[in-house]
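Researcher: I've been going back and forth with a colleague about how Lipoprotein might be arranged in three dimensions. Neither of us has a model we trust, so I'd like an independent prediction. The organism is Stakelama pacifica, in case that matters for your notes. Sequence below.
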Amino acid sequence: MRHLFRIAPVLALGIAASACVPSVAPPRVTPSPAPTPAARPLPAPAPVLKGDWRDWPLTPGDWRYQDGARESVARYGERGGETVFAIRCDKKRRQISLSRPGAAPRSLPMTIRTSSQTRTLTAQPDGREMVVTLAAQDRLLDAMGFSRGRFIVEMPPMQTLVIPSWAEVLRVTEDCR
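Model: Here is an independent structure prediction for Lipoprotein. You can compare it with whatever you and your colleague have in mind.
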């Protein structure tokens, strides 16, 4: 208890001194405006493909094959997305059609480039797509199926397609032969 009486005046003095210190108002903070998000840059245009076409990246997608009584068709494109190229067999006529979506008011050149041959064909507008029709025995179809890993479909002003030469190409071809 003695110690309490010795400390009590010191504590009282400390409390009194703290009461004499003027209170300082905190500095007034004005909120800064929220930063405006930076404008997103436009997506880069499709790359200009240069160099050897056999080194170009494949157009995204997969082949899907369907066989029916009158026709068989192999479609290339992203799952759930639009078909970007199709090979269709009309079994009765024994004709193969190569098509791309998009319509033009006139015919356009469609160049098919494989590891063994290159040929420019004339695509005709047919509704909402451009179509080239070939005989089932046309050797270009074999060249597309046996091309070393890929073939190219060029049809300006449309994007150039780099398509893998998977079994679906030859399945449709054989359905017509």
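Researcher: What would you highlight for our discussion?
Model: I'd start with this: Residues 36-46 have pLDDT under 50 and may be disordered. After that, consider the following. The helical segments are 2-20, 139-146, 167-176.
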